[in-house]
Amino acid sequence: MQQNRHRNGTFARGGTGWLFALGAIGVGLFAGPTRAQDDGDMPEAAPADVEELMRDRGIDANSGVAETLREQQARRKAAEKELRRVRLKNFGTMKKVEIRQEGIARLRSHTDPALFALMVDLFSREQNDVRDAMTMMFHESASREGDASLAWLAIYGRDEYLRNKGLTLLTQRFEDEKRLREKAAKQPETRAGKGPQTEAIQSDAPTGPQQLRHDPVDAARIVIYEGLRRGSNKVKGRAAELAADLKLVELIPWLAAAQVSGRPASGGSSGGTEDPNGSLAYIVVGTQQAFVADLEPVVSEGAVAFDPTLSTITEGTVLRVIDAVVYTYHVEVHRPLVRLASEAAGRDMADLGWDYRKWAQWYYKDYLPSRDAAQASSAVPPK
Predict the structure, then answer these.
(1) 300 part of a folded domain
(2) pTM for this one?
């Protein structure tokens, strides 16, 4: 069998420095509502130990990102008691609309994005009125943490309602930011040579005085990356579907790398051993012939006997499998990859199949140059 050698992330040019700028979301996973069937591989959203998280992600403990993570963890711990009190008093099995609305109002008063991961842990199990309020807070915040929370719910939500909610609101965020940035780009530059992009985006921001809003694509990318890198088959498929639904063409290399994974097969000893029992498997095709290997006489008074030792000799062929690699073909990733690439290329890309190198050659040598050329020609004003 031909072996396709690859390593996840080989195509991700430009490094992974942006990967660690996420802050409050902490690249954790999410808990789901009690009324939905639980997904067994869903840890909590808010990281329990920021120091362990930074070690896992390779974040410098003295960097600005590390300081931000520690500050956000402190704010989450300070607000956790109040949020748990709201859940206990106003939500759960409470049926009085007035009390539930009071709880939702108290929930919406906590607008600090550092609390979003904690909210997902605490309130994803509630009824849809609470979950709607929570996800709308993420959307209205127009923050990196809010967009990351929506993307995470779209992948890790335990029921279809939460996943659809995350996808819908995140898609709206993409559309809103694209519209605002296009509007800002069309306005003339100021005398100082700086365009009014900040003002244009601030003027349409949903809440309060705003700074320049980030690109939600960045937040979605890091969540998709985590899903493809360490998620189960189900999570990998949802991450790939989210990338295709959001039309994130720049993630095609990641999807191509994630559609095939391999690992050494277990069960054998080190290669080169002569013991067949140390092999992963072995097949013997041959003939065994018994013979007397040793004959020991036994003598007693008036009698003589013999104690034979029998052995066998084998003639034929022995096939031993000492080392092997098991490849897993992730159909749940391959299909969104083909859909995303076909929409970008304007033709069916299924012919690239599972070959990592073919996808790399097409993306970097065919697709990117043609896209850049088309963008450059459209930017030239007509004479």
Answers:
(1) yes
(2) 0.69
